[in-house]
Amino acid sequence: MPTSPDSVTHCPPEAGQARPRLAPSALNWLGVVPFFLFALLFLILPTATLMIGAFQDANGHFTLGNIAKLFDDSILSAYWISFEVSAASALGGGLIGLLLALAAIQGGLPGWIRPTLMTFSGVASNFAGIPLSFAFLSTLGRMGLVTVLLRNYADFDLYSTGFSILSFIGLTLTYLYFQIPLMVLIVTPAIDGLRAEWREACESLGGSSLAYWWHIALPILWPSILGSTLLLFANAFGAVATAYALTGSSLNIVPILLYAQIRGDVLHDQNLGYALALGMIVVTGLSNAGYIWLRSRAERGRE
Amino acid sequence: MAIAIGTIYFLLPLIATFEFSLKMNRDGYSFEAYKVVLSDPGFQATFGYSTLMAVLTIIVGILLVVPTAYWIQLKLPRLRPLVEFITLLPLVIPAIVIVFGYLKLYNSSAWLPLTGNDRATDFLLMCSYVTLALPYLYRSIDAGLRAIDVRTLTEAAESLGASWPSILLQVIFPNVKSAILSGAFLTFAVVIGEFTMASLLGRPAFGPYLQLIGANRAYEPSALAIIAFLVTWASMGLIQVFARNARPARKTA
Amino acid sequence: MAYLTINNLHKRFADHVVVHDFNMNIEQGEFVTFLGPSGCGKTTVLRMIAGFETPTSGHIRVGGEDITHQSPQKRGIGMVFQSYALFPNMNVTQNIGFGLKMRKCDSAEIARKVAEVIKLVELSGKENHYPHELSGGQRQRVALARALVVEPRILLLDEPLSALDARIRKNLREQIRDIQRRLGLTTIFVTHDQEEALTMSDRIFVMNQGRVEQEGRAEMVYTEPATEFVARFMGNYNLLGAADSQRLLGLSINGHLAIRPESIHVLDAHSQQADTLAGTIRQHQLLGNIIRYQIESAGVTLQVDRLNRTASDLMPAGTEVRLQISRDDMREVR
């Protein structure tokens, strides 16, 4: 209900019928110019220039050669390991985070548990990057507390099993540290959206607790769960700092490959680097698009 | 049960890190590692640099986001989906890709050589941090604005004869103060230890310093991890404090 | 013996007593209403009957069978919620068929019964709509159909109309009552709206602070309030304290004297009839078919309702009148 005279026109100036009201309309647009200018300069143009670069050779001519090189074995395997680590930490984080959130919200636990879990999740989901890798080295590294305790008291050498904090498993365990709390944070609103009356209506219609979860709660939560897991996947796929500080360059995952490429350590092929970046955007973009689509589905019908 | 396992999983690394950080002296536990770290000029310089960066990022971010979000709600609601989409992009495009784009676009021979000298690169780094903070800042501020029905408040203020600056400063801002502060502290937590951007732009920030120490020292990294954890915890704790204070205020508003 | 009997029902949350010594008997096919302000315990009693809350003490029996500690699934009691509580992931047909599916009915039977009840609540054509595509009134009819289709022993309605707007509310109210009569369904209805209670119920339980203030047939509760609370809650009774009724009417009473505004007759100031009081009109409100006057008499302000027949009937402020109140229309209440 726009009542002030200059808020009537929302049309962009190029729309023909807005001509007579050009002045107030143009003024309206002036208000968002700084934001769009900023987004263009520091978000959209830099990304766009990479995407274009991915289709150019060193002399600026169009080529699909860079994209083709992404399918080299060494690069493909980097994408594959990245995919595995991200998928494992997203699935694990998604499942455990969901169970934790369910237990805290619906499990009939004492009232202080929930706010504590939420605060802690806020901290832990932001406690990523280099300090996190230090923490895991102190825990599960060769001199880590758990490794040492197991060796001294349980006579069990963790590293003799082939375990290494610098490996796939080690990286996944480390990623879980911020993935689980992140899942708790993003899935909690969806769980809060489950109304007590739905359970009661189900009970009074003769449905068991299992029937409630199977026919009502899970179908309602499903888009949120899947969407959140996709978001976790994208989150892990783009992470650099944790992996770099933990494994240096010893684990061949895409973000580290790209990091090394930018630092000029390997590849020596600028345009292949652009293609690598493009590949990352495609993967994270797809999973985020999935998240947004599923979230809008989940919000539908819950007004 | 799930809670118990979760608690162990999340506390164990912290305990282990803390325990490790105390072992620098061979003859028992001490805070030696902390003493070494805190008195290291490298620590002081990089931590100060990152703190300054975080503060600048928060100020610029707020100045960019608050008027935009306000304007979108008031005058251009049709643009909201587009703006929301743009603010979510930094979650879609990994930081490493964004900074790679900067290096290509703003290199020393480009039309806008922002990587040409240190001051310009500092500016570019701050802009990159504002970009990273966009999703958090926009979401928390937009939610804060939505909760107070900006349009009615603005119209009420207009009809009472308030000028635009006083509408923004005396009516809108006080009502979304807690939302802005939440976004600010979250931004602080994200920026203070950021590694990728700072490292690839070659600026002496706390993140690259952490990485350097981690690669060359044994006990100091644990002490640094504990310090970083406390900083994160303090930021989140302050968000909780402000969120709690905001609730009764909103009821009376 | 009555169909549903409740004996000495108590419910305490922590140290707060929500329901205090609740007793009632309901015959099969009866429509009973719990009426009271929010927080009076009416919904808690309903939830104990449904099995969502466990009584602190007391018994609930249906057809002689003690169901006090039975799980809600086994009670065969239907419930309609104020917020509809439709499952958002299911369409109209699936929502209504859910209870039958839980009872392991075969799909042909489910389809037949669902189609029948959809016709009953007049939702034909909406079978494949999802709850978010329906209006409030339609949603509540789906909720009603979902509760009815499993042929419950007792139907519980928890403020089912309070989220709807006035016109739909009146419509649905008649529809519910009509279906209830046709199916001969034992029904308990919870509301805070006395008009709703009066138009729909066979019997009303007026509740306050966890206790039953008065129970009785709808017309009785309105005309013969037993307590001050009921008098205030049911209508616009004039309530006179002991001192006022002594001064005005020369009656000494305990508690209060309740006089309905429409039972006071207004005569012109020169009337020679015996047993009348002198009064002065202070102001009036136009309520459509009724004009409500504030008339002062011996320092007491009384509300008096008169039919609004013609515009010239209206008596301006300051008019002197005489008031006649029949003994039969004065009720002493606790």
Number of strands of chain C: 18
How far the N terminus sits from the C terminus of chain A, by CA atoms, comes to: 21 Å
Tell me the β content of chain C.
Answer: 25-35%
Do you know the CATH architecture of the largest domain in chain A?
Orthogonal Bundle
Number of strands of chain A: 0
The portion of residues assigned to helices of chain C is: 25-40%
Largest sheet of chain A: none
Shape of chain C: elongated
Model regions low in confidence, pLDDT < 50 over at least 5 residues of chain A: 1-22
Explained architecture:
The complex is a heterotrimer of chains A (303), B (253) and C (334). Chain A is mostly helical and 303 residues long. Chain A has two domains: 5-53, no CATH class; 67-299, MetI-like fold, CATH 1.10.3720. Chain A contains 13 helices and no strands. In chain A, helix 4 packs across helix 10 and helix 5 (113-126) crosses helix 8 (168-192). Chain B has one domain (33-252): MetI-like (MetI-like fold, Orthogonal Bundle), CATH 1.10.3720.10. Chain C has ten helices and 18 strands. Chain C starts with a strand and ends with a strand. Chain C has two domains: 4-233, 3-Layer(aba) Sandwich (Rossmann fold); 236-333, Beta Barrel (OB fold (Dihydrolipoamide Acetyltransferase, E2P)), CATH 2.40.50.100. In chain C, helix 3 (92-102) crosses helix 4, helix 3 (92-102) runs parallel beside helix 5 (136-148) and helix 4 (107-120) crosses helix 5. In chain C, strand 15 (290-297) and strand 16 form a beta hairpin. The mean pLDDT of chain C is 90. At the A-B interface, helix 2, helix 4, helix 5, helix 6 and helix 8 of A face helix 1, helix 3, helix 4, helix 5 and helix 6 of B.
